[in-house]
């Protein structure tokens, strides 16, 4: 780099006494520009509302249904579970649709066949968010934590909280497609249906990683994604 800068200084007719300063400046700024160039553009985010009318929470569920965004339930901390349902057309003004939601507190939710569905240890659905009917009293996979409910190939799928994968067309009868999914016995994954396949991303297991993770030393978290298809004996055509 010294030879390159020295040649450039000579061509520009700059005093050679400036060479050390120029080299130092280049060394300090080059990593910054390289790092900046490597970062993908994340888009512009605008804060729509500083304070939502519902309490700060996590583990809530959200769907888009009937032209509105819906947010339901959530953990408030200190073993407090809030069971409510809110809706908004713009993210700024929210309407409390109902309190004391009848479905499981940590139910996964999706939109399927023109209704909102809430699935966990039981199965519920609603055509308007106000009136709910219980479709099934119990599910075969039970009230496990941190699963995912997605719609794929005209069916509802429950996966991502263990190595088993379930599918249903009516919420009553659930078919187990595998008890040994390739992504292992992880939970708290993200799952999606994209380009005709199911995608499973992230998640964790309750065992210490080697070396231990910085924030969650008792867990191992995953950064890889897995596509489920015929290779893993999950036939999306069935």
Write the H/E string, N to C: HHEEEEEEEEEEEEEEEEE
Taking pLDDT < 50 over at least 5 consecutive residues as the criterion, the unreliable ranges are 1-36, 230-238
Rg measurement, Å = 26 Å
Number of helices: 2
Spatially, the strands of the biggest sheet line up as 1-2-3-4
Share of β-strand residues? 35-45%
Terminal residue distance = 62 Å
- Helix- and strand-based class? mainly beta
Shape: globular
Largest sheet: 4 strands, antiparallel
The residue-averaged pLDDT reads 81
Helix content: 10-25%
Q: Please tally the β strands and state the result.
A: 17
What is the number of domains? 2
Structural account:
By secondary structure, the protein is mainly beta. It has two domains: 53-138, no CATH class; 148-238, no CATH class. Helices cover 13% and strands 35% of the residues. It contains two helices and 17 strands. It has a four-stranded antiparallel β-sheet with strand order 1-2-3-4, with no helix packed on it. The radius of gyration is 26 Å and the shape is globular. 23% of the residues are buried.
Q: What's a concise summary of this model?
A:
The protein has two helices and 17 strands. It is mainly beta and 238 residues long. The protein has two domains: 53-138, no CATH class; 148-238, no CATH class.
List keywords for this structure.
disordered C terminus, 35% strand, globular, four-stranded antiparallel sheet, mainly beta, 238 residues, 2 domains, 2 helices
């Amino acid at each position: 780099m010294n030879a390159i800068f020295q040649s450039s200084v000579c061509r520009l007719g700059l005093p050679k006494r400036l060479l050390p300063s120029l080299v130092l400046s280049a060394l300090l700024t080059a990593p910054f520009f390289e790092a900046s160039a490597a970062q993908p553009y994340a888009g512009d985010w605008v804060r729509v509302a500083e304070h939502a009318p519902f309490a700060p929470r996590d583990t809530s569920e959200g769907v888009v249904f009937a032209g509105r965004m819906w947010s339901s339930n959530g953990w408030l901390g200190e073993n407090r579970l809030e069971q409510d349902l809110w809706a908004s057309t713009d993210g700024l003004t929210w309407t409390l649709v109902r309190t004391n939601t009848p479905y499981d507190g940590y139910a996964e939710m999706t939109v399927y066949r023109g209704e909102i569905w809430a699935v966990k240890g039981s199965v519920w659905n609603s055509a308007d968010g106000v009136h709910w009917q219980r479709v099934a009293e119990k599910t075969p996979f039970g009230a496990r934590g941190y699963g995912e409910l997605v719609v794929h190939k005209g069916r509802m799928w429950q996966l991502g909280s263990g190595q088993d994968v379930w599918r249903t067309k009516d919420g009553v009868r659930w078919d187990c497609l595998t008890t040994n999914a390739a992504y292992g016995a992880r939970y708290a994954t993200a799952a999606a249906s994209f380009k005709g396949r199911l995608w499973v991303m992230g998640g964790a297991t309750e065992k210490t990683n080697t070396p231990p993770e910085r924030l969650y030393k008792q867990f191992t978290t995953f950064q890889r994604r897995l596509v489920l298809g015929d290779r893993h004996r999950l036939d999306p055509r069935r």
